[in-house]
Amino acid sequence: MSPYGSGPDSGFPLRPHQLGQDVFRAVLSEDIEWKPFPAFPPQVRLAVIVGQPSEAGPYTIRVKVPHGVKLMPHRHPEDRVYTVMAGVFYIGLGDQFDAGSLQAYPPGSVIVLPGNTSHFHWAKSSEYVAQVTAIGPLGIDYISAKDDPRNNNS
Fold first, then answer.
1. What is the pLDDT of residues 92-147, one digit of tens each?
2. How would DSSP label each residue in 70-125?
3. What is the pLDDT of residues 4-21, one digit of tens each?
4. Domains located in the chain, CATH noted
5. Cα Rg for the chain, rounded, in angstroms?
6. What are phi and psi of 145, to 5 degrees?
């Protein structure tokens, strides 16, 4: 009985595949479709890599934030794992934006953010791309309603 396999002889039951994950496939960078996301400032782009973030189940997204853009304090109900793909990812914790508390993470860094942790981002030194993996549905709630782009009807 192998502790590393799955199936009837391994001691680990076979699990059903997640939607869209029953066949091998690859996602190449040049095939990623970047789109605006209503909960982000208009310059920010989001791409769905795997899964359906609006539904229950695992998902992977990428977020591209242009130089100078800030994402004001917010929280997500789901636990998240961020991987910095490009640029420097600045993140701070708390209910107030505090540039002095930002931590910088270079490409290749992995950040684990527990659900319901208030935090904020700033593309301080350059554009960055971060990949986020979590179990949906994706949620985002801004600490202050005035910072939520979904409330700006102009």
1. 999 999 999 999 999 999 999 999 999 999 999 999 999 999 999 999 999 999 99
2. EEEEEE-SS-EEEEEEES-EEEEESSS--GGG-EEE-TT-EEEE-TT--EEEE--S
3. 665 566 666 766 666 666
4. 29-151 (2.60.120.10)
5. 17
6. -60, -30
Q: Which of 122, 129, 108 is nearest to 47 (CA)?
A: 129
Tokens of 115: 């659900």
* Nearest by Cα to 77 from 102, 53, 111: 53
Residue 76, token pair as written in the block: 């997500």
Q: pTM of this prediction?
A: 0.85
Q: Give the pLDDT score at 23.
A: 79
Pair of tokens at residue 131: 């990949």
